[in-house]
Design brief:
Layout lengths: L11 E5 L6 E5 L1 E3 L5 E2 L1 H5 L2 H7 L32 E6 L2 E7 L1 H12 L3 H13 L2 H13 L9 H6 L10 H7 L3 H11 L9 H9 L24 H6 L6 H6 L7
């Protein structure tokens, strides 16, 4: 019987049956290109090593082609679309014959090294999905802070740029996804845009939930942030064929306005 190279247990997982509430065994078999087998979580526990070396943690075989090595400035350099680790994963849902596990491995390694980034990445998901209530709740939690885990302050969260997503900020993501309510919220909190430039509805919505404007200097203006391609939020808006025409015409996306 094939076993996991880390824990040496059978390649199954115990889960509770929804109908009988009894435990049952389901497959949990992740096979790497080298032929070594792991439980999904057991391999994720080795993420830091794998993300840096791109080698199997058991046999040391190189797992990906077209891979640049790590550097002092970028220990997890494997974000190129040409780099992947194709694996075969058998689970309760069936068999995935060509699953690229590198994005998951890289994310886990980054979060292991930067645990304070977990809420920041959740914040980015909320910006992309237009979850204004979630953003507000997350920022309030950041302001209160329980001190149990490393955490970013609210101003850091708002301006966080994700090295695993081409250095985009929450504002970049909101622009790309057409989330106008989120855009106005972020501009209210973290830009130097005068209050009179905001729609009355946006101001009233912010004031209704007690959202205060941060003391923002021009260099800290969220509109000045540029992604890995050198684009500001204004640049992204200009690429989107009129979706943001009104905001571009009003100049509210331009830093310093």
């Amino acid at each position: 019987m094939t076993t996991c190279k880390v824990c040496e247990d059978p390649l199954t997982l115990q889960v509770e049956d929804e109908e009988t509430e009894q435990l049952q065994s389901v497959p949990d078999d992740l096979q790497l290109p080298c032929g070594c087998h792991f439980h999904w979580q057991c391999l994720l526990d080795q993420s830091t090593e794998v993300a840096i070396s791109l080698k199997c943690p058991s046999c040391g075989t190189q797992l990906a082609a077209n891979a640049a090595g790590p550097s002092a400035t970028n220990p997890f350099p494997h974000s190129s679309p040409n780099v992947s680790i194709p694996a075969r994963y058998t689970s309760e849902g069936g068999v995935d014959e060509n699953l690229d596990i590198l994005p998951t491995i890289t994310e886990e390694a980054y979060l292991a090294a930067n645990p304070e980034a977990r809420p920041a990445r959740a914040y980015h998901v909320m910006c992309a999905e237009g979850d204004v209530e979630g953003i507000i709740e997350l920022l309030r939690d950041a302001e209160q802070g329980d001190g149990e885990e490393p955490a970013m302050a609210a101003p850091q969260l708002i301006r966080y740029q994700d090295p695993l997503a081409n250095m985009k900020s929450g504002l970049h993501l909101a622009m790309e996804r057409g989330q106008e309510e989120v855009v106005w919220l972020l501009l209210w909190m973290a830009s130097t845009l005068p209050a009179h430039a905001f729609p009355e509805a946006a101001v009233q919505a912010a004031q209704a939930v007690g959202i205060q404007r941060l003391d923002t200097s021009p260099p800290e203006d969220i509109r000045a942030l540029r992604d890995g391609r050198g684009r500001s939020a204004e640049d992204i808006a200009a690429e989107m064929d009129g979706v943001w025409a009104a905001l571009l015409q009003a100049g509210v996306l331009h830093p310093g306005v």
